[in-house]
Amino acid sequence: MIMCRRATELMSQRLDRPLVWQQRLSLRFHLAMCGACSQCNRQFDVLHEAGKRFEPAARDEQE
User: Fold this and answer.
1) Contact between 15 and 8 (Cβ < 8 Å)
2) In angstroms, how far is CA 14 from the centroid of its own chain?
3) What is the tens place of the pLDDT at every residue in 4-27?
4) If DSSP states are collapsed to H, E and C, what string results for 13-45?
């Protein structure tokens, strides 16, 4: 099983690019076992979604 540090790295990377199947499986297994990382993963998702919503507004301001 991967450690929490590696899990958070994978959580971040999956927002930028697709993970290979071994990484996805390792992360999914870790998240099933670790409540702290599951919460962290949800926070990553919320922040990522919030960033996507503000991105078009930031582009409009630059023009």
Assistant:
1) no
2) 5
3) 999 999 999 999 999 999 999 999
4) HHHHCCCCHHHHHHHHHHHHHCHHHHHHHHHHH
